[in-house]
């Protein structure tokens, strides 16, 4: 996983697991004190290892964005402008060619531009 290596380094040990909505809500309640089913949760296990939990069902494109989001959290980033910029950078660098192009949306993705 090239994006993992770019964000966390080659020696970082990472596991990714898929969980259902019930488990995502339970874990989010226990560890984040938030009572909703999170799309993705990231848990650092040590300085050089961590785990990403992704709630299913999830589309391939959404999974890619969620993994980048979780990797950045494992790298120490908090929600904000810098993290958004990093998400955009890594998404564009590693995954933009996997997206279908929409002629009405030159920036990519499947949604049409609002008029």
Features:
3-stranded mixed sheet, Collagenase (Catalytic Domain), 115 residues, 3 strands, globular, alpha+beta, single chain, disordered C terminus
Question: Biggest β-sheet, characterized?
Answer: 3 strands, mixed
Helix content: 40-55%
Spatial arrangement of strands, main beta sheet? 1-3-2
**CATH-level-4 superfamily name:** Metalloproteases ("zincins"), catalytic domain
Structural class of the secondary structure composition?
Answer: alpha+beta
What order do the helices and strands come in, and which of them pair?
Layout: H1 2-8, E1 13-19, H2 21-32, E2 40-46, E3 49-55, H3 60-74, H4 81-95
Parallel strand pairs: 1-3
Antiparallel strand pairs: 2-3
Description:
α1 packs parallel to α3 (60-74) and α3 packs across α4 (81-95). Strands 1-3-2 form a three-stranded mixed beta sheet. The model is unreliable at 102-115 (pLDDT under 50). It has a single domain (2-98), classed as Collagenase (Catalytic Domain) (3-Layer(aba) Sandwich), CATH 3.40.390.30. It is an alpha+beta fold. The N and C termini lie far apart (38 Å). A hairpin with a 2-residue loop joins β2 (40-46) and β3. 43% of the residues lie in helices and 18% in strands.
Short note summarizing the structure:
The chain has helices at 2-8, 21-32, 60-74, 81-95; strands spanning 13-19, 40-46, 49-55.
